[in-house]
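Design job #97: recover the sequence.
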């Protein structure tokens, strides 16, 4: 209820009434050399929903991970909340709520504010400033990313970051299943920003592996709140249409799994306990090593737990989750340590790469390269315990290696503006890192007479 009070001085809060003066508001920020702006309109705060003006904790937290995971200097980072109203009735009725007390501004007025904000950031901080979209609603997230990705150095972590880390998990799983990504059939539970982003990046990877994009789409089946995404439905967005199938309607996940016999099942619908024992057992019957990713978070919304995935599949599942789960010890003594598909593996490293080489854009190909690099960092020891991600405690070194791979791709695509490409890329990246190791100011002490 009082979330905003703790964050109000941590970033810039701009509201719809400031339209026409956004550049002047940015000038109030005391640091002019900003390289990354993380901003939200608070419409889809994960696990909380529409928080109106109280979403500042999200960009603050994301930028803290820039520093904590990828050693990016925090002075280069600016968190911003754009208050365009709220559709949360509880907030509108709350006498302590200090945001705009009206329904969310939408349509042309909303677009004009966003356009002014992004234009002002580029004018104030340079055309290569990184613009990080965070926790925008579905109706805006894909549209805004499509609108700006070809003219602005920007990305949406909910779409592209999630997609990259999930694909990395799939690529790590292939080292256990011992086949190619084009050999797999995927069923997705949920068709929001996360799963649509994952599906598109998997399709791009399949295309790189040699099959046409349309054939890749045919290997991916998606279910949303209204059931299987099929061509006869009239309520599909353009992003869902890519995955629409010529099939009969079906609203039951278990029936879909029995009919399609997928090799991989991925959930990001924030609906708990939807990967039932029946479904997991069916996956295990149809596959020697079924891939089961329960990516919803927090833990209370996970599609199934690690223990359920392993025990119901008789330890055959290749499992990863969006929330952390403890290790599982099977009856035969086998130990499984499930990996967590945490976006922190990806977006800080991508940001570090973009800031180091001065990339002018961030196409999906960079997130594909990040996923491939992350998957290569999974050790045989990790795979031996069923973990398809490297250990999170090594995140700083992981970020450096992923950033190096992304930087190389930036130069290959002629996106980098730091020229020429450094000969020793690792030394170059490490020279850009922020260190919080301060010298000691405590005088040296010793025992008198010794």
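Job complete. Output follows.
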């Amino acid at each position: 209820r009082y979330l905003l009070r703790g964050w109000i001085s941590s970033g810039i809060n701009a509201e719809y009434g400031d339209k026409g003066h956004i550049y002047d508001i940015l000038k109030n920020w005391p640091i002019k050399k900003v390289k990354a702006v993380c901003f939200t309109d608070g419409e889809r705060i994960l696990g909380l929903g529409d928080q109106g003006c109280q979403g500042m904790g999200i960009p603050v937290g994301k930028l803290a991970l820039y520093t904590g995971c990828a050693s990016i200097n925090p002075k280069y980072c600016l968190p911003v909340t754009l208050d365009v109203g709220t559709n949360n009735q509880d907030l509108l009725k709350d006498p302590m709520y200090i945001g705009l007390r009206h329904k969310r501004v939408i349509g042309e007025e909303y677009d004009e504010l966003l356009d002014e904000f992004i234009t002002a950031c580029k004018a104030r901080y340079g055309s290569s400033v990184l613009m990080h979209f965070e926790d925008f609603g579905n109706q805006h997230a894909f549209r805004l990313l499509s609108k700006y990705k070809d003219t602005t150095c920007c990305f949406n972590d909910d779409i592209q970051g999630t997609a990259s880390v999930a694909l990395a998990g799939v690529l790590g799983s292939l080292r256990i299943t011992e086949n190619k990504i084009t050999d797999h059939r995927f069923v997705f539970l949920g068709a929001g920003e996360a799963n649509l982003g994952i599906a598109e990046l998997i399709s791009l990877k399949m295309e790189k592996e040699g099959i046409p994009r349309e054939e890749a789409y045919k290997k991916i089946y998606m279910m949303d709140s209204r059931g299987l995404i099929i061509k006869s439905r009239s309520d599909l967005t353009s992003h869902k249409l890519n995955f629409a199938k010529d099939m009969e309607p079906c609203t039951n996940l278990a029936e879909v799994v029995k009919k399609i016999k997928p090799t991989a099942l991925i959930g990001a619908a924030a609906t708990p306990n939807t990967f039932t024992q029946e479904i997991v057992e069916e996956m295990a019957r149809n596959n020697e090593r079924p891939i089961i990713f329960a990516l919803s978070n927090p833990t209370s919304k996970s599609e199934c737990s690690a223990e359920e995935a392993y025990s119901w599949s008789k330890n055959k599942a290749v499992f990863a989750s969006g929330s952390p789960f403890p290790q599982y010890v099977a009856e035969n003594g086998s130990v499984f340590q499930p990996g967590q598909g945490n976006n922190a593996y990806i977006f800080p490293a991508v940001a570090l790469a973009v800031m180091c080489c001065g990339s002018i854009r961030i196409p999906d190909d960079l997130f594909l390269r990040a996923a491939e690099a992350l998957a290569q960092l999974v050790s045989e020891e990790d795979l031996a315990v069923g973990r398809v991600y490297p250990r999170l405690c090594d995140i700083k070194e992981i970020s450096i290696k992923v950033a190096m791979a992304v930087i190389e791709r930036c130069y290959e695509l002629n996106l980098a503006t730091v020229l020429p490409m450094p000969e020793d890329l690792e030394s170059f990246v490490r020279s850009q890192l922020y260190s919080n190791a301060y010298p000691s100011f405590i005088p040296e002490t010793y025992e008198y007479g010794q």
